[in-house]
Design a protein that fits this description.
The structure is a single chain. About 30% of the residues lie in helices and about 30% in strands. By secondary structure, it is of the alpha/beta class. The protein folds into 2 domains: about 120 residues, NAD(P)-binding Rossmann-like Domain (Rossmann fold, 3-Layer(aba) Sandwich); about 190 residues, 2-Layer Sandwich (Dihydrodipicolinate Reductase, domain 2), CATH 3.30.360.10. A 9-stranded mixed β-sheet has the order 14-13-12-11-7-10-9-8-15. Strands 3-2-1-4-5-6 form a 6-stranded parallel β-sheet, with helices on both faces. Helix 4 packs parallel to helix 5, helix 5 packs antiparallel against helix 9 and helix 7 packs across helix 9. The longest helix has 18 residues. The radius of gyration is 20 Å and the shape is globular. The chain binds nicotinamide-adenine-dinucleotide (NAD).
């Protein structure tokens, strides 16, 4: 795979480091020349001022869009139009409508558009998904999901706090991973109830703490908390099934050991089975490999719905918080 990198920040570096030995970073584009050069030079890649120049000058099979969200739609649609596959960071776009336009461009040009949701590839998360899907513990009844970190000094000056760049706060930025996991691993989300808080003076409309209920057609509910007031980094995904509780806590690194716990429902003495996953984060490499496979398997080129779907759920949460009532998740088809 000849790869173009759009953006040269944290995610661009992670994604570039996850390329397979047979891939080649051909060009890096972005406005921050120093970091573009830092990423490009060791790989012998070209340094480009912006993504338009990259798409015009460099023969690439795929691009990674690793910029703030306001650049995702234009750059991805242009790349797809050049016949180039796209792995685009979450959130796929600033709105579900924009994500829908990206999906249609992918379908029209028969190219893969993949929304980067690397959390699906954490080993404990995978194991939880497999345990739920296998059905051995019965039906999933409810869930609790928590993800957060502490607001950083200077957060107000980052693009994450700029309403011209983002269309939501912490729920859109980090909580969207939980939204994706609930709607992918547990149940399709029919409607949403949300309470949003802003305690740190971010611009209007950019919450720093979100408490959200995601309800299925059958009435199962996941409680999701996504927060910038998690003074110690925290990740939790806990599912109550008919015959067991299955829990992932931690993601490794600053989020603590990634641990999968299975607690069976039983009338006997309390028992739990715990598995701890240690070692380097495999998610970037595994997601990249899955993306590469998708570009080759015609059937998988049908764009994955998870990017627009997660945005439609987050948008429903914002509508619910404004109205104080449950809000239906509306997708373009409805
Ligand atoms: N999957 C995850 O766990 C995860 C984690 C962090 C961020 N993200 C997502 O990745 C994306 C990038 O986040 P980040 O943390 O790398 O941000 P960052 O600030 O570290 O990097 C953003 C980069 O985009 C570049 N850029 C800005 N405008 C551009 C343009 N018009 N053309 C090309 N490049 C441009 C900047 O120069 C910078 O290099 C966001 O969508 C974010 O939500 C995902």
């Amino acid at each position: 795979m000849r790869v173009g990198m759009i953006g040269s920040g944290v995610q661009a570096r992670r994604r570039a480091a996850a390329l397979r030995p047979q891939d080649r970073l051909v060009a890096v584009a972005g406005p921050d020349t120093a970091s573009v050069q830092d990423l490009a030079r060791p790989a012998g890649a070209a340094v480009r001022r912006d993504w338009t120049e990259l798409l015009e000058r460099d023969a690439v099979d795929a691009v990674v869009v690793a910029t703030p969200p306001h650049v995702h739609e234009d750059s991805a649609v242009a790349a797809l139009g050049h016949g180039v596959h796209v792995l685009c960071e979450k959130p796929l776009a600033p709105s579900a409508a924009a994500a829908g336009r990206m999906m249609r461009a992918a379908a029209a040009h028969r190219r893969t558009l993949w929304c980067g949701f690397n959390h699906r590839f954490h080993p404990a998360v995978r194991a939880l998904g497999e345990a739920v899907a296998a059905g051995g513990h019965g039906r999933a009844l409810s869930a609790i999901a928590v993800y957060g970190h502490a607001v950083r000094p200077g957060y107000h000056t980052e693009w994450r706090a700029d309403p011209a760049v983002v269309s939501g706060g912490q729920l859109m930025e980090q909580g969207i991973h939980l939204v994706d996991l609930v709607s992918t691993l547990l149940w399709p989300v029919r409607d949403v109830f949300a309470h949003l808080q802003s305690s740190f003076g971010l611009p209007a409309g950019l919450e720093d703490d979100a408490h959200v209920l995601l309800r299925s057609e059958q009435g199962q509910v996941a409680f999701v908390r996504s927060s910038l007031s998690q003074w110690r980094n925290r990740f939790l995904l806990e599912v109550t099934l008919e015959d067991a509780t299955v829990r992932v806590s931690g993601l490794g690194g600053s989020y603590g050991d990634q641990t999968l716990t299975v607690e069976p429902r039983s009338s006997g003495p309390f028992t739990a089975r715990e598995t701890v996953f240690r070692g380097p984060d495999p998610t970037w490499r595994e997601e990249w490999e899955a993306f590469c496979r998708a570009t080759q398997e015609r059937t998988l080129r049908t764009p994955d719905e998870s990017g627009p779907r997660s945005l439609a759920i987050v948008e429903a949460a914002y509508r619910s918080a404004r109205s104080g009532t449950w809000a239906d998740v509306t997708t373009e088809e409805q």
